[in-house]
Design goal:
With 81 residues, the chain is mainly alpha-helical. It has four helices and no strands. It is flat.
């Protein structure tokens, strides 16, 4: 596999990990640090209310499951909806 092909596969795999809400390791940032930054990113990079809300929902699930201070309870609540 070429270097470009390998990088493409790696980027795709990292995207799937991020999308699923499961990180390979806990973040160093806490929920309170990461969630507002993620929400700000959503607002800056999405145009419609629907896409902003979808992005923010992804942020909430990700940070409640993967923030430095996340636990099984916060993650279960995030996934419940």
């Amino acid at each position: 596999m070429s270097r470009t092909g390998f990088v493409s596969v790696l980027v795709l795999m990292l995207g799937l990990v991020s999308y699923s809400g499961n990180a390979l390791a806990r973040e160093k940032q806490t929920i309170g640090q990461g969630l507002p930054a993620c929400n700000n990113y959503c607002e800056a990079h999405n145009k419609t209310a629907r896409s902003i809300n979808g992005c923010k929902n992804g942020c909430l699930t990700y940070w409640l499951c993967n923030g430095a201070d996340a636990d099984a309870t916060s993650c279960a609540l995030a996934r419940a909806g």
